[in-house]
């Protein structure tokens, strides 16, 4: 996965969003981006389902490929069809993580750097989701002197959540493909007044 490419694509999407919503230009948008990330993390956990100990259905929602353009419904025009809701929610989180990194100027992260850092996730997936929610809040609340460290820790734990077989078990290729597909959808949404 080319993280620099993804950071750049996210900047293009964020610029597109700012063009469509000029009231956001020139202001600090960190508060709502952190909250949006936390909401998306919750949605990702919901598709993972492993924390739902009260349910007999704790299997993750996501099989096969990510998004497919087309429709299996007769009489309905072409549309994006979800194929892997868990991966879709994961890349929704990735969009906000990249956006926050761009806003804060912490966008020089590479795959090599990530692999050198080791595993920043917790032993269980539930604990990793909780850690991610805490780290997102820390990026917002910590003094600027500590923000980069908190962002990098958030980023590393998030990547570990996605890649580690103990957790979601995606591949770099699946994540990148899903990001590219969803980024295209997000651009189309801006063009149509989403």
Automatic annotation (TrEMBL):
Gene3D superfamilies: Type II deoxyuridine triphosphatase. InterPro entries: dUTPase/dCTP_pyrophosphatase, UCP030140. CDD domains: NTP-PPase_dUTPase. It comes from the Bacteria. Pfam families: dUTPase_2. This is dUTPase.
């Amino acid at each position: 996965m080319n993280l620099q490419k993804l950071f750049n694509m996210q900047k293009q999407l964020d610029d597109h969003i700012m063009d469509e919503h000029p009231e956001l230009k020139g202001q600090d948008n960190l508060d709502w981006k952190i909250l949006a990330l936390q909401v998306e993390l919750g949605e990702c956990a919901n598709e993972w389902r492993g924390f739902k100990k009260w349910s007999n259905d704790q299997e993750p929602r996501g099989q096969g490929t990510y998004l497919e353009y087309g429709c299996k419904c007769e009489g309905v025009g072409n549309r994006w069809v979800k194929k892997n809701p868990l991966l879709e929610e994961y890349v929704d989180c990735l969009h906000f993580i990249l956006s926050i990194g761009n806003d804060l100027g912490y966008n020089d992260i590479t795959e090599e750097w990530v692999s050198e850092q080791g595993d920043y996730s917790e032993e269980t997936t539930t604990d990793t989701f909780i850690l991610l929610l805490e780290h997102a809040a820390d990026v917002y609340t910590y003094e600027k002197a500590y923000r980069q460290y908190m962002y990098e820790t958030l980023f590393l734990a998030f990547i570990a959540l996605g890649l580690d077989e103990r957790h979601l078990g995606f591949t770099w290729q699946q994540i990148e493909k899903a990001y590219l597909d969803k980024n295209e959808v997000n651009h189309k949404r801006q063009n149509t007044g989403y």
